[in-house]
Amino acid sequence: FKAIGHKNVLATHKRTFEFTHDNHLTVHGDCILGVHADYKLDDIKKQRFHGRICITLTLGGLTETIEATYNPSFSDPHEMVIRTSDYRDARTFAIHATKAAKDISRGLVKELQHEKILTIEIR
Fold first, then answer.
1. 57 vs 60, 87, 91, CA distance in Å?
2. Contacting residues for 45 by C-beta, under 8 A, at least 6 apart
3. What is the Cα gyration radius of the chain?
């Protein structure tokens, strides 16, 4: 799926990163990497993810790879949160992630601040 960066992307959160369908972002959303996320919950469920997954973020020539454990209880059609902890709720797409927002390369974050399109691949 795809998401769009925003001028307020800070990516400083220590335990999570997130994608949202919202079209706005305040500086308080320090875990959000992309807005206007176009994932569809039904499409995610059809993939039948299980166990460890690989999340690849790509923007231009920049790539970031994160491993995490899929949360089969994920059911939020609006927000997708990836956590380094084992906390789960309906918004939690994955837990035990190898990176949080603060670990995303600053080069990628800078490009996101220019409202560029981020491609998110999950396998």
1. 10, 23, 19
2. none
3. 13
Query: Which stretches does DSSP call E strand in the chain?
Result: 2-4, 16-20, 32-34, 52-59, 62-70, 79-83, 92-95, 117-122
- Taking Cα atoms as reference points, which of 100, 104, 85 lies closest to residue 17? 100
The alpha carbon of 73 is separated from its chain's Cα centroid by a whole number of angstroms, namely 17
Distance between CA atoms of residues 101 and 81, nearest Å: 11
Q: Which two tokens stand for residue 99?
A: 């990176």
25-to-21, 70, 98 alpha-carbon distances in Å: 11, 26, 24
For 64-110, the pLDDT digits (tens) are 999 999 999 999 999 999 999 999 999 999 999 999 999 999 999 99
Please tell me the distance from the alpha carbon of residue 14 to that of residue 1, in angstroms, as a whole number.
24
The dihedrals phi and psi of 88, each to the nearest 5 degrees, come to -130, 135
Give CA separation, 45 vs 9, 12, 39, 71, 75, in Å: 28, 29, 11, 11, 9
